[in-house]
Write a structure and sequence with these properties.
This protein has 447 residues and is mainly α. The chain has one domain (2-443). It has 16 helices and no strands. It has helices spanning 2-37, 39-62, 66-75, 82-104, 108-112, 118-131, 135-150, 155-177, 187-211, 229-260, 265-301, 305-332, 334-341, 345-377, 382-404, 416-443. The radius of gyration is 21 Å and the shape is globular. The protein starts with a helix and ends with a helix.
Length: 447
Amino acid sequence: MTRPLVRDILRLAWPVYIAQIAIMANGVIDTVMAGRYGTVDLAAVGIGSSVYVTLFVTLMGILFALTPAVAQLHGAGRYAEIGEEVRQSAWLALGLAAISIVLVTHPGPLLALSELTPEVEAKTRAYLDAIAWAVPATLLSRVFQGFSTAVSRPRVVMALNLFGLALKVPLNWVLIHGQLGFPELGAAGCAVATAVSAWATCAAAWWWCATRREYARYGVFARWSWPRAAAQRALLALGLPIGAVFFVDVTAFTFMALFIARFGAEYSGAHQIAANLTALAFMLPLAIGNAASVLVAQSIGAAEPARARATGIAGIAVSLGCGLAVGAGIFLAAGPIVGLYTNDPGVERIAAGLLAFVAVYHVFDAVQAAAVQALRGYRRAAVPMIIYGVALWGLALGGGYALGIGGVGVAAPMAARGFWLAAVVGMTLTAALVSAYFLRVSRAPSS
């Protein structure tokens, strides 16, 4: 059974991977273009995007509850019920967008942790004020993407994300540097470009859903639905623990960025490069895990628990193999990779040293990504939430603060290297515990 399962996973994963790479490429483009515009703007993009991603990704994670719900209905052949799930998820997305806009535009408590210079703080706030308006479009697009992937139609998601990426580069060029009569916005130009691209992609996604024959049987636009309390509670019951997992994972990096910013713009820029590469590399195991999650949920909906377990195991194995290959590539090509991001010698030197930690971190990140998403196929998210909290907040972030800035038993603070060393240890523990929990859950009959 293993080879067919691997083929099924890869068939679903590759368009998801390209779609996610297109999303992540937006961050890479911002980092590269801001870095070449100026070190202060690179620091502002790094800090601003850390704050934004923390708030946005946490709320977006709540919407991940839609995918296993729709996939189980699809596996059971209950297509007529899918449209209502999508409509209720869209209402949830709008509510979360309102919360996110308020939080992104009021970042004072988070920025205070970084002790930023006035110039960096001003540029960071301008970046956040602009990017807040991308949130509603991006969350609504996330609903469409989760729905399409759950019914095994990820190629349209890939095409839409590539469309958004195609808009991003020229918009950045115009808005960062003030071309074609537009004002020169620097770091904030990256955020304005993201907002314009996000709204264009969102409009295209829902137009496609409304007009294409293959989506008609799900009845998304068959009727109007107001938010229903029972449906919202069901989505939140699974979505909140998933969002909490995202929150813990992302805040570990956010607080790393905020604390590392204390060492100056060079360290902040170097950490932004390392964090950006980590997130970019994570897209492959995330795609594999996403595919495995959908196939696990579809198997559960079809009352095939043995296939569900085998699919999860195959997903973890494939993700581990890919993680080893990508980690080795990062380690061996650290210098040239850093050179793509910046031409500042100080930033290059620091960032090159951090990529050795990134290489090891990625291997264990790949394992946990597949395992935790396979668990979502079973609609299990509470225990992973606890594991993430203990391992990534307690061990990784707490240990990173002690090693990086100084604590009990630390003779000489290790700065950014200390934070990354602790992150590797925390992610190793996370991968081991989440994988063990998946093996336990998948032994029991699916419910």
